[in-house]
Write a structure and sequence with these properties.
The chain has a domain at 27-93: Ribosomal protein L21 (SH3 type barrels, Roll), CATH 2.30.30.70. The protein contains one helix and five strands. The chain has one helix spanning 27-30, and strands at residues 38-41, 60-67, 70-77, 80-86, 91-93.
């Protein structure tokens, strides 16, 4: 028997899907963030590059550095601090009021 592959997007048919004609705006891909800014991790299904692991979906983190086109986001998971590398199209600014 051949072992079933467990790729990056395994079991995400409903989770990471959009309507057929959906096209994100270009501003989502070129948005800029400052170090120390709070962001929400939200995957953009149309872009595979720089997508964070689905476990971090909906989490709030803080930008700690810029790495090429991507950003490093510090996220607290339980008692641990995790670093998530993500491109800007998968991040959304958090506005506190």
């Amino acid at each position: 028997m051949v072992k079933k592959s467990q790729g990056f997007r395994v079991k995400t048919r409903k989770k990471l899907s959009r309507e057929a004609r959906y096209r994100p705006t270009i501003t989502k891909f070129i948005q800029k963030f400052e170090i120390g800014e709070k962001v929400i991790i939200e995957q953009e299904p149309t872009s595979f590059k720089g997508m964070p692991f689905p476990r971090f979906k909906g989490m709030v983190g803080e930008i700690i550095e810029k790495r090429g086109k991507a950003y490093v986001v510090k996220v607290k998971v339980g008692n641990k601090i995790k670093k998530v590398i993500s491109r800007p199209e998968h991040l959304k600014p958090l506005f506190l009021r």
